[in-house]
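Give me the fold.
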Amino acid sequence: MSKSLYNRGSEWRKWDLHIHTPASFHWNGGKRFFEMTAPEKEQAFQKMLETINNSDVAAFAMTDYWTFDGYLEFKDYIKRKNLKLNKTVFPGMELRVEAPVDYRLNIQVILSDELTAQQLKDFKAKLRIGSLNRSLSDDAIKEFAQTLDDSKAKTHGFKSPSTLNDTELLELGSKTVVVTKESLCRDAFTAIPPKCGYILLPYDTSDGLVKLDWATHPHDDNYFMQSAHIFESRNDECIDLFLCKETPKNKSFIKNFIKTIGGKPKPVVSGSDAHKIEDYGNYPSGKITWIKADVTFQGLRQVVNEPADRAYVGTSPLKLIEVANNKSKYVDSIKIAHTSPGTTPAWFSSKLPLNSGFVAIIGKKGSGKSALADIVSLCGDSKINPKDYSFLTTQKFKKRSLAKNYEANLTWLDAQEISKNLDSEVEVATSVERIKYLPQQYVETICNEEGVSILFQQEIDKVIFSYVPDESRLGTNSLAELIKTKTESVDGSISVLRTELHRINEKITLHEDKEAPKYEESLNKKLEEKQRELKNLPQPKVVKKPKTTLNKATEAKIKRLTASITKFDEQITVAKQELKDVNGRLHKLEKITDKVTSLGGDVEAFIETFQEDATGMGIDLTKVLSLKINDGVLKTKKTELSAEKEKLDEKLEQNNPKSTTSFYIKKAKQEAELAKITATLDADQKQYKEYLQALKEYGEKKQAIEGKKGDTSLDTIISLEEEIDFVKNKLKGFLQQGYKKREETLKKVFKELGQKIKFYQEIYTPIVSFIESEKETQEKSGNVLSFSAGLVFGRPKFVDDFFSFVNQGKDGSFQTVAGGQKILNAIMDKYDLTKEDGVCGFTEDLLTHLRNDNTGTTPKTNHIKSQLKKDQTDFYDYVFNLDYLDVKYKILFNGKDLNANEFSPGEKGALLLIFYLLIDKENIPLVIDQPEENLDNESVYTLLVPYIKKAKSRRQIIAVTHNPNLAVVCDAEQIICASMDKKKSEVKYVSGSIEDSDINKKIVDILEGTLPAFTVRDRSYIRRN
C-alpha cells in the first residue's frame, strides 16, 4: 500500500488561510516582536506552535502585513529547537494595492511552503511602491511615510512625520502605503516557480473589492477579478456567484459576472483574520473554511482547479454530515492477506483505507484492478452471480484452490469488521446486500442480449420502485408486485376467473416461499442489521440551555414558530397515514366495483349459454336467476374518497411554492422565518436552538428505523418483528385459507386497458417528476431520459402465435408462409391498435380474411375451423382477450424507445449507469468495473462524468477505469494504482490523491501513456475559442 501521509486521498479538513503573527503592525495579542525581549519572543513562538498543533485546523497561512518575517522566524524557531510542527503552514502576506477606491483595498498572497527564504525575499523585492518607484522594504515604507503631510499623518493618528521615530514611521507607512497592481499580479510571481503562489482577494469581507464602483472603473474591476485566484467571502449569495452557480437571485446577471471573473469558477474561503494567537482557527460567524485536498500546496492547486467540489464555507460540508449519519453505509478500509501470516510469496498483503467519495482504481492490464473490485464486493455481500466476477473465478484466482489461502477483512466506518475467505460465495437467499456491484461481465451480459433482458428490466425496476412513496405502495415490496396489485382489478375485468386464480396462486406461492427456513433466517439477519443501524444512529451532543435569555418577544416568537413547525410535522404524518388509508380504500372499492360489474356479466353469460338447453326443458332461466345491481352507493363512495384524496394530495404538495393548503409549504415558510431569527441569535442561543432541532431530527430518524405497528415495508424493526411472528404463528392458517379460496375462485374476461394506463401513470409519476427536475443536467450532458405510458403491440410474438393456430397448408387467405405473412402484415399495418376502433377493426378483419378467401380467381368462403390447426375456442380467446396488447411504461432515451429494441449495447449500459448514478435512491456503496466500456470518450465525458460527480456526493463510488475522463475529470477523491509482479506472485496497491505527485505521475503514465505522449497529442490539437 502507499506510504503517503494522505493515502486515503482528498478529505475534507478545516483550513485557515488568514492569520497574523506579532510581526504584523496590526496586532491585538500584546507586544509585537520588535517590542519583545528574546525570552518573550521564544515564548510567543512556543505558544504559536502549541496553538497550531492543538487546533482542529489542518492548514494555516501566515499573512502578516508587508512581511514574511513572522513566518520565517517561526519556521527558524522550530528548526533551531528541533520541534515538530504537526500542521501545514504556508507563507503569505497581506498588503494593499493601488485602486480607484476611497478605502484601502486589502489583498493577500498565499505561497508554497516549499519556497526558500531567498525566494520569498525575491518575491517581496518585486513589489513596488509606485509613488517612490522603489521595491517594497521596511526602509521604503518609512520613506513613504516621510512623504506624507501633517494632515494625512494626523488622519491616521500620528504627529508630523518629521517628528516620528523609525518605529512610528514604519507603522504610519504600513497603514498608508500601497503597491502597484502590476508589481503584485505580474512581476512578483516571476520571482518564484510557476504555480507556487496564489492571490487571495477579499470580496465582501474587510476592505474587500465589492465596494469598488465597477461601472465607473470597469478596467480595474476586471483586472482584480481576473487576477485573483481565490476570493474571501462569508456571504452565500456571493459564494454562489464565484462558483458560477445560477440561482433565482442571480439569474439576471450571473453570465456577466462569470465573464468578469474570467469565465470559470473560483474557490471561496473565509479565514479567521486572527490578530492574536488564541484566535487562530476561530472563524467569524462560524463561517469555517473546509478544503477537500491533501494538506499541501499541491492540494491547494487542485482546489483552484476544482473549486466547486473542493472548497466549502460553512458549519460542515454536506458530505461529512451524510457520512457521519450513515457510517454503516461507508467502507473504511479493506485488508487482503494470506491466511497464514508471513507466507511468501503472497499474492496479497495489503491494507487500503478507502475514501468515502469517488475511488478510482487504475492500473495496466492484468494488474489486479478488478481483483480489488471483486473482493470488496464479496465482503459487502453483493448479490451478483459468481460467474460474473472478473477475478474470483474458477478460471482465474479460484483455480487450483488458490483463493482458499487468502482472506479479506472489510471494515465499515461504524467499526464493524467483515471477514471473507476469497473462495467463499455470498449466501444470496439470506444475506443483506450492503454493496451494489456492477461487474463488467454482468453489464455486458444484460446489455448485449437482444431486446430488453429480464435482468436489465429488474435492475431498472428496482430504481423506479424506490421513488414510489410508502403511502402509495399498497403494502408491496417491488415494482412488479405493485403493478400487479394496482392493476389486478383491471386484469380481473379482462378475465376475472383467471385473474382471481392467478392472484390467489401468487399469494399462495408467496406464503409457501415463507415456509422455507432461509426466509425466516433472512428476516432475522435483516432485523439484526436494522438494530445495528439504530444502535449506531448518532445522538446529538448535549448542549446546555444558555444562561443568557432572549427578550420576551423573540422568545415568544421562537416558541410560536417551533410549535407551529412541530404541528405541521404532526399534520404531515397524519395526512400521509390518511392518504395511505384512502389509497387502500379506493383500491378495495375498485375491486368491489369490478367484481359487481363482472357478476352482472356472469349472469348474462350464464343465461345466454344455457338458455337453449333450459328452453328445451320448459324452463325460463330469467325466472330462475336474476341479479339486480344498484351501484349508486359505490359511485357515491368513490366520489367521496376521490375528493378526500385530492384534498390530502394538496396538503402534501411539495413542489408548488404558491400552494395555500400544503403543510410542507406552510412549514417551509415557518422554518424560513425561524431561520432568520436564529441567524440573529448569539452563539450560545444559536447553538442551543440547533441542538434542539438536531434532537428533533434524531427522534424522527429513530422512529423511521423502528417503524410502527401495521407497517408492512419489511424495512423497519417493528415490521420485521411482525413478519417473523407471522411466519412462526400465522403462516399455516393463511395457507389453508388460500387453498380453500383457490377451489372456489372463478375467472372472467373484460376489457379496460385505458384504466390500466392510468394506474401506470400514477405509479410512475414520482420518478417522472424527478427526471423532469433533472432536465437541465440531462440536457447539458446531451443525454435525455423520459417516460410515457401506453399500449405496446407485441407484433413479432403475435405473428408467431397467430400462425401457430392457422393452418397455412389449407386453401385460404393465409395459405403459404410468404403469402400469409404478406396478408397479415397488411392487416396489422392498417389499424392503430392503441385506439378502440382500431382494435375492433383489427380483430374483425382477421376473422373476415379467415372466412373469405380472395387469393384465387374466384372468391371462396371458408369455415374458420377449417383454417385452424388448434382448438377454435382457444383461437377466439387469443384474438379477443388482447393478450398481445400490453400496457407498458415506455423508457425513451435520446428519443429511442427501449422496448422497441432500438438501443445499442453501449446505450443500454449508459442508461443503466444513469439509473444508478442519478436516479437510484439507495445509498450503499456502488462498485463499477470499467463503466466506460462500449462508450466513446465524448460520451464518457458528457454522460458519465457529471453523473458520477453528482452521485459521489451521496454515496461511496468505487470504479475500475482505464479512462482519464473518469479518474481525473471526475476529480476522484482517491486513486488506487494496482500493479502485479507475476514473477514474485504479488499484487500491490498504492493509493493517494490526484494532487499527490507520485500518484499524479502514475495517472499520467497509466491513463495518458506517459507525459511525453500526452504532450505530443496536446500539441496536435487545435483549440477554438
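The domain at 11-117+191-318 is CATH 3.20.20 (TIM Barrel).
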